[in-house]
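Try it yourself: sequence plus S-adenosyl-L-homocysteine, in.
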Amino acid sequence: MVLPFSLLLLLLLLFFPVQEEVHKERREMMVKHTIEKRGISDRGVLNAMRTVRRHMFVPPELADRAYEDNPLPIGSGQTISQPYIVAYMTQVLRPTPRMKVLEIGTGFGYQAAVLAEIVREVYTIEIIPELGQSAAERLKKLGYDNVHVKVSDGYQGWPEQAPFDAIIVTAAAETIPPPLIEQLKEGGRMVIPVGSPSKTQILTLVEKKKGKTVTKSLLPVVFVPFTGGDQN
Ligand code: SAH
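Structure, out:
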């Protein structure tokens, strides 16, 4: 049977809103069953997790799995973190609308989008050019005008934009890069997975208090390696 073009168009137009509805429901379930249930209570973070269309931040063939509580492969050997960890790390930063945040490890841009829903400006650095460029395009297309993407080694941070109210590192570093500590504001918070890439790492909170650095271990995590700086 050959459908007339107008009928095909109509079917397509009907199909997209239905798909969006399905994703929205899955997002609601994800927040309710895996994020709120496991103790995330920050209203801003929960709202952002409900709002960001995660299926747009995974490879198209994985869109159907975007709302599972798992990390997903995004190509170039990298992964996008599981939603609970994204929510947890975001909550640790205590984000507010006035904040300027630095992210190291843009990947597909999902974490940056979650932050962008809450804070004023997000500066994010990706070391793999193809990932950085496509994340910049994706974020722009989706209207995240307050996210600025740079392709470079995040070890050096983004000195021209420093200091930052908060810093989030989404790749596992053996040690905390000193330039990032320097670029953190007094009273600021940084969250970073610290440890050997071949093992479980410890998600670590770094706070700058009266010029001193105070660290606190939060929970064991598994992240892809931080590849720049002196980590090689
Ligand atoms: N935050 C991402 C997932 C990050 S996966 C998201 O929400 O989709 C970790 C990313 O860190 C990878 O894309 C990897 O290429 C990047 N990365 C590793 N070392 C880096 C470095 N030194 N500077 C910048 N990015 C780095």
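One thing you can check immediately is this: The domain at 7-221 is CATH 3.40.50.150 (Rossmann fold).
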